[in-house]
Design goal:
This protein is α/β, with parallel strands linked by helices. The protein contains 16 helices and 13 strands. The termini are far apart.
Length: 407
């Protein structure tokens, strides 16, 4: 009897104890005993998509590489003390980023809240327990921010109880500083819009012996930004972990001066009775964040940039010959600093709106997410979140929709 006939016959013979000695080929019983791998996205009815938009929180940011997942999975198999994990990982992160100290937070927002708390309380546990109530506590209560930097993220600071004071000029900063001033805050993404740049902002603060904090949530690449603002003299630096660094989306980093980091940790888990108790970061995320940071720093960034440019070229070349279409490669100056492609079309020649195009791509197979751009007849795409080869799929689908909408 041939081997395939033996195997076929096994389907009609009941197994005794799961094995028929001398008949089952090696490995068959083991393979049969393994549970089928679950597709939880399919099981839950979740739509997956090609991310040609970017590392937005609503789109679950970035995908973690194998080395990060390995770090997360391996660290889930033993118990350790959470404070010790933060101590050891913080030392490594600080060294990599030229900071005196650091720790992993529950995203950049958490870093902003906890950093502000540390500035307000110092090492006074009574003050830690009183936040966000500042009245009658002796704590300072005002944070100065440039008007152009008010963009929603300042709400993280008010979580700690402070009042925001807005300014536009150096003279207004000097006039706003008083005995209630706790800190000067800087939103790096809006730096091009402000009248006071980094160095002058730091200089004013130092003149008055006040700490500075910078929010640079999505501001790598370039990789040098990870240590640039520490070297420049900001006292606290906050960054997201799940964007270009491809760490856990729910993780971030607070780094800076040793005394302020120590004070910030008093309002962070596992300690209780503070405003940060709910901002838990588990050991797996802390270690995963460290590995993601280390991996990101050690990447070949020039090679990665060339890959992005090549992906842009694939899409651009595919659609440039569609009548009525124009394309432009742009690079945002600060946040999400990488090449992206703006695709515009003549509404007289191509009868579809940007929202209509977005909907067509979203509901297609495979589903693709893009960015609605500045006009009713333009979209923008990024390629740094694409998997290898997905740029060809994006190019084909966009060309198809533009062609079908052509008058």
């Amino acid at each position: 009897m041939k081997r395939r006939d033996i195997l076929r016959s096994l389907t009609t013979v009941p197994f005794v104890g799961g094995i028929i000695a001398g008949v089952v080929p090696p490995g068959v019983a083991i393979a049969a005993s393994k549970a089928a791998k679950r597709d939880l996205f399919k099981e839950l009815g979740l739509r997956t998509f090609i991310n040609a938009a970017g590392n937005y929180t609503s789109m679950t940011a970035s995908l973690m590489p194998e080395e990060v997942m390995e770090a997360i999975n391996s660290s889930a198999k033993e118990y350790v003390m959470l404070e010790e994990v933060q101590d050891k990982v913080g030392e490594k992160i600080a060294a990599l980023c030229h900071a005196e100290a650091a720790f992993v937070t529950a995203g950049c927002w958490s870093a902003l809240v906890l950093g502000t708390a540390g500035v307000l309380t110092g090492m006074d546990l009574k003050k830690v327990a009183q936040l966000p109530k500042l009245e009658g506590t002796g704590m300072k209560s005002e944070v100065i921010i440039q008007k152009s930097h008010i963009n929603g993220y300042d709400h993280a600071l008010t979580n700690a109880g402070v009042t925001i004071i807005t300014v536009e000029t150096k003279e207004e900063v000097e006039a706003a500083i008083n005995e209630r001033t706790a800190m000067l805050w800087f939103l790096n993404r809006e730096a091009p819009m402000g009248k006071i740049q980094h160095e002058e902002w730091i200089s004013i603060a130092k003149k008055h012996n006040l700490p500075t904090m910078i929010d640079m949530a999505a501001d790598v690449p370039p990789v040098e930004n990870l240590w640039k603002y520490n070297d420049m003299g900001f006292d606290l630096v906050c960054i997201s972990g799940g964007k270009a660094m491809c760490g856990p989306q729910s993780a971030g980093i607070l780094m800076g001066k040793k005394d302020l980091i120590a004070a910030a940790r008093l309002s962070a888990p596992p300690a209780g009775g503070n405003i940060g108790r709910g901002m838990k970061v588990n050991k797996e995320e802390i270690i995963g964040m460290y590995v993601a940071l280390e991996s990101y720093i050690n990447r070949d960034h020039q090679k990665e940039w060339r890959i992005w440019e090549d992906r842009i070229a694939v899409i651009k070349n595919a659609i440039d010959n569609v009548a009525g279409v124009t394309t432009e490669v742009i690079i945002p100056p600060v946040a999400n600093h990488n090449p992206s492609l703006v695709i515009s079309w003549d509404p007289n020649k191509i009868k579809i709106t940007r929202d209509g195009m977005g909907e067509k791509l979203r509901k297609g197979n495979p589903s693709i997410e893009t960015i609605a751009w500045e006009t009713e007849n333009s979209i923008r795409i990024t390629v740094f979140m694409l998997k290898t080869g997905q740029e060809k799929i994006v190019a084909t689908r966009i060309k198809e929709e533009l062609t079908m909408a052509s008058a």
